[in-house]
Design brief:
Blueprint lengths: L10 E7 L6 H16 L3 E6 H4 L9 H4 L2 H10 L1 H8 L3 E7 L7 H15 L4 E7 L12 H13 L2 E4 L2 H9 L5 E2 L4 H8 L7 E10 L19 H16 L3 E6 L7 H10 L7 E5 L3 H10 E7 L1 H10 L3 E3 L6 H8 L13 H14 L7 H8 L4 H43 L1
Helix pairs in contact: 1-9, 6-7, 9-16, 10-15
Length: 421
């Protein structure tokens, strides 16, 4: 009998799959994660983010997380996800930029991670993510801090994708591994660079700074709070157009495109003096192509900036809804992030743009970033090695007994033959 007996230990449930969500950078990173997990030899089942957004009846404080009665109530209201967890061996959560604060989306994911480990006794990992318990660098709200500590100290492994978040979690005595976002792995494995630059294209992308939106709802964002900064940003776009740049805004997603991008377009477009184009990418590779060919990218987007670094496109990074952009820039040894609220935003953007224009082409960081991204999978790799060794030991044991029985049977054959005569 040579069939491995540990096959069932290789079932991975991948939660918060962003393949069809928000923008194509999310598509790239989730695609890469799924491919790497399958390469390791696991059987993978994926649960999209549109489903994780539907979780209900979850507790919202660290004391309530630990109560069996709350778990039973959650299980009744969310029977499908509980059955999925029970039928798998490993829960792998794609945190990305979701795990900040205690709004419903992060709290529900944290609760799932906690109960999968403590009540359902599964191996649980949170990878490919930034974590900011209070949305910023503060650690003074004990209720929030204790909730995050409860979860992260319970699970088996966490991989943080940028050093600012890593440092913050380490201050909470949480053991975590520094990694990087998995999007570079998609570029390395699938994208074929065109190596064509349009030296007159200024590519604009939005920011999650005014987000706090559920894409599945009809809520509006808080973009008006950034009106002063955006007025300077609009003046920057107009000035760059006067200097001969073709202005393009990058939009598009495989599914559920970002509402904050639509708000940004609706706010900016009527206030521009110049003409710009909203370019809608129809595929992930087309999205990467727009970034690759641009002379300059100006964005408050995490994945857009990573794509630029991987493809050799100069970029200016604006702030987002957490300090994750600062963490990304530190990973890339890049200049500091610029805030939309900066009173000198226009001057700073123009000065940096001119500096970039006069500089040589930036270094392509793809291989380095891919190596860091692979740190997301070190625990799964070690676990697979352990399972494989157990399988091999069991196979050797089965082979030994099979050989022993065959030899014993052969030795008994003359005796049995004589006895029959």
């Amino acid at each position: 009998m040579k069939t491995p007996i540990f096959e069932d230990n290789k079932k991975v449930l991948f939660l918060n799959d962003t393949t069809e969500w928000y923008h194509f950078g999310c598509t790239a990173t989730s695609t890469a994660i799924k491919e790497e997990v399958v390469k390791l030899g696991y059987n993978l089942t994926s649960v999209p983010i549109t489903e994780t957004y539907k979780f209900s009846s979850f507790p919202t404080s660290y004391t309530e997380f630990t109560k069996l009665s709350n778990f039973e109530e959650f299980s009744k209201a969310n029977r499908k996800i509980i059955e999925l967890i029970q039928s798998h061996d490993i829960v792998l959560m794609n945190g990305e930029g979701t795990l900040h604060g205690v709004r419903p989306a992060p709290t529900s994911l944290l609760y799932i991670a906690y109960v999968a480990k403590t009540f359902l006794k599964k191996h649980v990992e949170i990878i490919n993510h930034s974590a900011y318990p209070q949305d910023n660098l503060s650690l003074d709200n004990l209720d929030v801090i204790n909730l995050y500590k409860l979860v992260y100290q319970a699970i088996d492994f966490s991989a943080i994708r940028e050093p600012v978040s890593l440092s913050l979690m380490q201050q909470l005595s949480i053991k975590c591994t520094e990694s990087f976002d998995c999007m570079p792995l998609y570029i390395q494995n699938h994208y074929k660079p065109h190596r064509i630059k349009d030296n007159n294209t200024l590519l604009i992308a939005g920011s999650a700074a005014w987000l706090h939106l559920n894409i599945l709802s009809n809520d509006r964002g808080n973009i008006e709070e950034f009106e002063q900064g955006l007025s300077q940003f609009i003046a920057y776009i107009d000035e760059m157009a006067k200097r001969g740049y073709k202005i393009e805004f990058l939009y598009g997603a495989q599914g559920f495109p970002s509402k904050d991008d639509r708000e940004f377009i609706a706010f900016v477009e009527p206030r521009l003096s110049c003409k710009w184009s909203v370019v809608t990418a129809k595929s992930l590779d087309e999205w990467l192509g727009f970034i690759e060919k641009a002379a300059l990218l100006v964005s408050g987007r995490f994945h857009h900036s990573i794509a630029a670094a991987c493809l050799g496109t100069p970029f200016i990074a604006l702030n987002s809804n957490t300090p994750k952009i600062e963490g990304l820039l530190r990973s890339l040894d890049h200049t500091n992030v610029i805030n939309y609220e900066d009173n000198n935003l226009l001057i700073k953007l123009l000065n940096i743009s001119e500096e970039i224009r006069q500089q040589s082409k930036p270094e392509v960081r793809l291989e380095e970033l891919c190596n860091k991204a692979m740190q997301n999978f070190v625990s799964l790799k070690e676990l697979m090695l352990l399972l494989t060794n157990k399988e091999n030991q069991q196979t050797e044991k089965n082979n030994f007994w099979e050989s022993f029985i065959n030899k014993a049977s052969s030795a008994l054959q003359p005796y049995e033959k004589g006895k029959s005569l």
